[in-house]
Every structure is written in C-alpha cells, then in structure tokens.
Description:
By secondary structure, the protein is an alpha/beta fold. The protein is 32% helix and 16% strand. Strands 9-10-11-12-13-14-15-16-17-18-19-20 form a 12-stranded parallel sheet, covered by helices on one side. A 5-stranded parallel sheet has the order 2-3-4-1-5. A 3-stranded antiparallel sheet has the order 6-8-7. α18 links the parallel β11 and β12.
Amino acid sequence: xxxxxxxxxxxxxxxxxxxxxxxxxxxxxxxxxxxxxxxxxxxxxxxxxxxxxxxxxxxxxxxxxxxxxxxxxxxxxxxxxxxxxxxxxxxxxxxxxxxxxxxxxxxxxxxxxxxxxxxxxxxxxxxxxxxxxxxxxxxxxxxxxxxxxxxxxxxxxxxxxxxxxxxxxxxxxxxxxxxxxxxxxxxxxxxxxxxxxxxxxxxxxxxxxxxxxxxxxxxxxxxxxxxxxxxxxxxxxxxxxxxxxxxxxxxxxxxxxxxxxxxxxxxxxxxxxxxxxxxxxxxxxxxxxxxxxxxxxxxxxxxxxxxxxxxxxxxxxxxxxxxxxxxxxxxxxxxxxxxxxxxxxxxxxxxxxxxxxxxxxxxxxxxxxxxxxxxxxxxxxxxxxxxxxxxxxxxxxxxxxxxxxxxxxxxxxxxxxxxxxxxxxxxxxxxxxxxxxxxxxxxxxxxxxxxxxxxxxxxxxxxxxxxxxxxxxxxxxxxxxxxxxxxxxxxxxxxxxxxxxxxxxxxxxxxxxxxxxxxxxxxxxxxxxxxxxxxxxxxxxxxxxxxxxxxxxxxxxxxxxxxxxxxxxxxxxxxxxxxxxxxxxxxxxxxxxxxxxxxx
Length: 600
C-alpha cells in the first residue's frame, strides 16, 4: 500500500488534482472501495474513522461513542480489499497519530492507495513517501486562465485588447494561484471599461497580508446585494457541504433576497465567480451540494464583520451580543450547555444546527425547547432539522412571531404544536422526511404569508383541507392527496405543486368531469406522479378509462406510477411521444387491463 502526499500552497489546486484522480472512471473501476474525507486543521481520529465507515456503508450507531470499536470495524471493512482513500487538507504532523491510522490502512489489499493533500511539507515527510508538489502557474498560464474567466466567456464574445494590459498585471499579482485568478477574473467579467479594471489594479488591497488580496478584491467588486449574501455564508464551517436550497431560503428569511428566483440567480452568480464550488457526487452521497474553499471561507468571515458566526468560535459575550446569524455543531448531550449563552443574543436572527459529526437523530434538551428558544424573540430563521424531537411544547412559537423560516425536517415529531399557526410572518415550512407526522394543523390557513411548504418523503402525512386558501403559497413539494371526489377541485386550485405528487383512493372519483377539475395538465413542475386506486372491481370500465384520460399529466413528467387501475384499457396519452422527459413508468396491480400501451 502507498501513501501519495500532494503538497502546495492554499488555492494552488491540490484538491482539484485529487478530485480529478478520484472521479476518473478507470480509477473508480480499479478500486473496490473509495472514500473522501475532509480532515482540515483539527485532526480527529474518531471523525475520520466514522466518516470512512459511513462512506463504506458500514457504520453502526452502536459504535457511535467508542473509537476502539470504530477502528476495529474499519479494519474489518478494509481487510483484503483494494481501496482508494483521500484525506483532504491534512495539517496534523503528529507521527504517532498518523501511525495508528496507517496500521489500520495496511489491512487493505495489494494496490490500495491513500492520497493526502496538505499545505505542509512536514506532513508529507511524515508519510515517508514521494510527494507530488503542486507549484504555482507560470505567468503565461496565469494569464490564459485569467483571460478565459474574465474575457472569453462574455456574451457576445469579442476581443478586448484595451483591457489586456491591466489584466496581465493583475494576473501576475495573483501569484500563480488558480483560486485567486478565477475569483478575481470572475468579478471582472461584467466590467468593460478600462477605468474599472485600472481601479482594481491600483487598489491598496494588493498590499494586504492577512488573506489573499485577490479574494478580497473579488469581494469588493461584488454588487451590494451579492456582498450581503456572500458574507451570510460565514455561518458555515470550513469544508462543510451546504445545500443551495437551504442557503436561498435563509437569505430570504434574512431579508437579503425577495424571491426564490432571485436567490437562485444570486447563488449562481457567486458560483460563477468561484466563491462556491460544487461537491462531486462521488464524494458526497446526496450530491448537489456546494462548498467554499478555506480561503474563501476566511474572506466571508472578514466580510461578515462578526455578524455571521459559528457559536464554537465566539469569544466573549460581546460577540454573542453582536452576532445576528449563527450556526453551531450538534452534539450528543442535548446541547443545553452549548446553547445556554444564547440568552445574551437578543438580536439573533438565524439559528442553524449543523450535523458535522454525522449523528443520527441526536437528542435536544427540553430546556432548550422550553427555556432558550422562546427567549430568542428576534429570530427570523430557525432550524431543528435532524434532531430526535418527538414532541414540542404547544406554545413554543407564541413568542417567535417574527419567524419566516422554520425547518423541522428529519425529526421524529408526531404532531405540530398549535402555536405554529400564530406565525403570521412564516414564509417557509420544511417538514420533509418526518416519518411519524400524520397530519398538518386544521388552522394552517392562518399562515397567510406561507410561500413554500415541503412535505416530501413524509410518508404518513395526508394533505389538510382547504390548503388552497393559502393565497401566498407558491411551492408545495411532495404533496399527497387522499380523495373523495370533492377534493379534485381543491387539487385543481393548487397550481404550484413541485417535485412529487401522490393521488390516492381514486376509486372515489365518480366521473371524468370530477377528474378534469384536478387540472393535471397545468401542473408543469410535478416531476413524479403516483396515481393509485384501491377497492373492488369497477362498475364501468369506460368510466375508469375516461377518469384516467383526464388525469393526463404535463409533458414535463419524469416518473409515472399507476397502481390498482380498474379499467380494461389504458388511455392513448400513455403512449404519447410528447412525454420526452419520461424516464420511468410503473404499472402495477392493474388486473383488469388486457393490453399494455404501445410504448417506445
């Protein structure tokens, strides 16, 4: 087995090189096991071992507090198997700790590899193997990269000789670091006046030593609205993989963005300037997540002026009093002692728990629910996602009337507290993957400003009555309707359904006129549709076919499931070639049908 250190300055491209190797198809086919672990400055053998087991789908909650058990299991998982493991951004140079980890790795099969990216030569020397040194780019390569990101991607494309002289000088000032070159070039992509480029070239920030000047210059060139959005992201820890949707919802709750569409544009703009990087799917089981480079994260912290912080890094009560947006790492002890100092954060607007340790449904102390949270009356955004909460105080939200964003997803709640209906300012309510939640509140119609409701993967939940009365509701994700025929009209009034939609008990629909009221062809954002019948044999096969005919979805549908259909023939639309995006069709328990539609 071999360790391959990749050494170089921050922002020079070590992780990019490792990702190129890790994601190569030949490499993937060559190794039986693969895992990518972000180590960072704080070396934690427990978290490394746990992360590897999770990557190999071998993690067991029974071992969650015992390092020895974790490492024994890790040895068993690696024994005799050819694996590739990447330890990204390693700083620890303690040989004893490295040797303990190495003794686990050598249990692997012949040809196994460990890739380690690091800024420190001493870390590479500790591994006793030949290192790959990633050097800075040459002047010519720097200018080529800078030019590609600042001038060549413009619309319409054209030559800009008048800008090239200043551009070449700025490229040289980035000292051959790709991260700096891309970030600064991206900030100049929309600037066409020579004076604008010259102002950046002559900026005093080039003399700064505390962080890459190019990154702060890139920040300075952002429009005001993007500066605020970027600085907000200082609440995320280094190497944390965050969801685009969550960031946008938090921006909206904080008043930085008005609409999802605008938030999406802002996020993409920051990504185009290399401030956000997409996490490769092969190294992130969920996929579709983003990360900030360590140095970009540092610049976000500077830009936020201590208004956006991580609780663990707050030093002194003055920081707690000054902070407006805060995240913290979820623990296993109920988090009361950790959150107790928040009594001094009267102006706190955002509270976001982050599951850095990969805990499964950690407990949240009742004292947090009863004593701490109700005191945070300025909160606009609150997440309790991932906690093993079964029950919440019924009056929890009475004093939190300014809340705009509430995330209770992946909790164990069986019932929502009545006081949620007093949140007149609430705009986003996330209840996805709440497996034990069976119903929403009857008084939901009081949430007059609710725009976004996510109930996806909440398998037991049925849609409440009169949800269509929520006139501000723009997005419903993962809706499930159990029908009496009278509900078809209400379903028709909900035009902003997104993601998956399930319609159950369709035997209760009397005729095609009722089915037509659902207005299924207008629901262009529904990508996955499930239509289910149950009960006895139909009285009239033609009526059943007419009903299904009127339930034809929009052509944007990607997955369609029909179960228990009681007609003898499928309607013609099922074989219509206009469904160009349809990737999966499931027909089950359609016992009366004597022929399949002409597919393909």
